[in-house]
UniProtKB/TrEMBL annotation:
<dbReference type="InterPro" id="IPR058240">
    <property type="entry name" value="rSAM_sf"/>
</dbReference>
<keyword id="KW-0411">Iron-sulfur</keyword>
<dbReference type="InterPro" id="IPR006158">
    <property type="entry name" value="Cobalamin-bd"/>
</dbReference>
<dbReference type="GO" id="GO:0046872">
    <property type="term" value="F:metal ion binding"/>
</dbReference>
<protein>
    <submittedName>
        <fullName>Radical SAM protein</fullName>
    </submittedName>
</protein>
<dbReference type="InterPro" id="IPR051198">
    <property type="entry name" value="BchE-like"/>
</dbReference>
<dbReference type="GO" id="GO:0003824">
    <property type="term" value="F:catalytic activity"/>
</dbReference>
<dbReference type="Pfam" id="PF04055">
    <property type="entry name" value="Radical_SAM"/>
</dbReference>
<keyword id="KW-0479">Metal-binding</keyword>
<dbReference type="InterPro" id="IPR006638">
    <property type="entry name" value="Elp3/MiaA/NifB-like_rSAM"/>
</dbReference>
<dbReference type="InterPro" id="IPR007197">
    <property type="entry name" value="rSAM"/>
</dbReference>
<keyword id="KW-0949">S-adenosyl-L-methionine</keyword>
<feature type="domain" description="B12-binding">
    <location>
        <begin position="13"/>
        <end position="151"/>
    </location>
</feature>
<dbReference type="InterPro" id="IPR023404">
    <property type="entry name" value="rSAM_horseshoe"/>
</dbReference>
<keyword id="KW-0408">Iron</keyword>
<dbReference type="InterPro" id="IPR034466">
    <property type="entry name" value="Methyltransferase_Class_B"/>
</dbReference>
<dbReference type="GO" id="GO:0051539">
    <property type="term" value="F:4 iron, 4 sulfur cluster binding"/>
</dbReference>
Length: 370
């Protein structure tokens, strides 16, 4: 019987467009949290909602594992979890209720819970992890399990039910600066073969996910950043390649998605990464997300050497007026030049675009379409 059942409320089937696209990834943030608690000596189990049919599968998992703690730990590396669709919030509330009915203490972590803590408390959550959650969760469970004498209210990064339906928040917690000390995600708890079958049936290859950073230091004013704000932390290339070697040896992915908000922002990082993957026979085709103003001929060349096949860029608009209103700190010309460099290197270019930004006119939309 595990101490903790980890889960999350992003059911791919509840997002009709993403189900049609058929590119599912396990909840990496959840896997990191489970790994951190297992390294601390806790027995953990995983419920992965991504390919599950409905919330009923969560209830079945609780009945099967009978944990003392049910932890809904949303994947902060999945931008759909970060934005939180209303249907997923409804699923989270239902899952909280199911866990409470079965006698579990319920702990929740995620962008939506950080922004709307009182709603989650009203749904039955006992504790909410505010911001980055691994260390807060570990300290909280140590206190609840009698391993620590630290009062719960003194643990940084917590939201507890307050009087009159409100909340009581403890002081905020600093971010984890040394990401290399975190254990790799608990891939052994994931049904990797189910993902492999899904991907190969839909696309003919199997993609897995990794992250090399946390957060984004830029100031785009439409972007919600309840977990990291504008802070940015980076794993070393050595640590990332070590994980990539592990995945290649144990699971043989055909492709990797690096789910960072911005891949390779730190100067020299991509070049060091490219050299290491080649030296350790760890080259796997990958896609990543980057900014157009980070592209120059040298960066594009080492991306290609490292195995990059696709770069997604947040162009957002072809109108400079709209980009300026967004505080994007980007020029339209930089988008065109980055696209030219990437295509010349044989790297596929994909763009995130927004339509309907406040103040956008038809002439701005036409500029984007051009």
């Amino acid at each position: 019987m595990p101490d903790i059942l980890f889960g999350q409320s992003y059911f791919l089937r509840f997002d009709a467009k993403m189900w049609r696209m058929g590119q599912p990834y396990p909840p990496l943030g959840t896997l990191y949290a489970a790994s951190a608690l297992r390294a601390r000596g806790y027995d953990v189990a995983l419920f992965d909602a991504t390919l599950a049919a409905s919330e009923a599968a969560w209830a079945e998992a609780i009945d099967r594992h009978r944990p003392r703690y049910a932890v809904l730990y949303e994947d902060q590396f999945n931008y759909f979890s970060k934005m939180c669709l209303l249907r997923m919030r409804e699923a989270a509330f239902a899952m909280i209720g199911m866990a409470k009915e079965r006698g579990c203490r319920v702990i929740v972590s995620g962008s939506d819970a950080t922004d709307h803590a009182t709603d989650y408390h009203r749904a039955g959550a006992d504790c909410i992890l505010v911001g980055e959650g691994e260390e807060t969760l570990a300290e909280l469970l140590d206190r609840l399990e009698g391993r620590s004498d630290t009062p719960v209210e003194a643990i940084g990064g917590l939201s507890l039910p307050g009087p009159d339906g409100g909340e009581a928040r403890s002081p905020s917690r600093p971010l984890i600066r040394d990401l290399d000390r975190l254990p790799f995600p608990v891939w052994d708890l994931v049904d990797v073969e189910a993902y492999r079958r899904f991907w190969r049936e839909r696309h003919g290859y199997h993609s897995m996910n990794m992250v090399t950073t946390r957060g984004c230091p830029f100031r785009c004013n439409w972007c919600a950043k309840p977990i990291y704000g504008q802070r940015y932390t980076v794993r070393t290339p050595e640590n990332v390649v070590s994980e990539l070697v592990y995945l290649k040896r144990h699971y043989q992915p055909d492709h990797i998605w690096f789910g960072d908000d911005i891949f390779g922002l730190k100067p020299g990082w991509i070049g060091r990464f490219a050299g290491l993957v080649r030296a350790q026979d760890a080259v796997v085709p990958f896609k990543c997300q980057m900014r157009a103003d980070l592209m120059d001929a040298e960066t594009v060349a080492v991306l290609r050497e490292a195995g990059c096949r696709t770069v997604w860029m947040g162009a957002e608009s072809g109108s400079q007026r709209v980009l300026d209103r967004m505080d994007k700190d980007l020029r339209v010309g930089q988008i065109h030049e980055a696209t030219r460099l990437l295509r010349a290197a044989g790297i596929e270019v994909c763009l995130f675009l927004q339509f309907g930004y406040p103040g956008e006119a038809w002439e701005d939309i036409r500029a984007t379409l051009r």
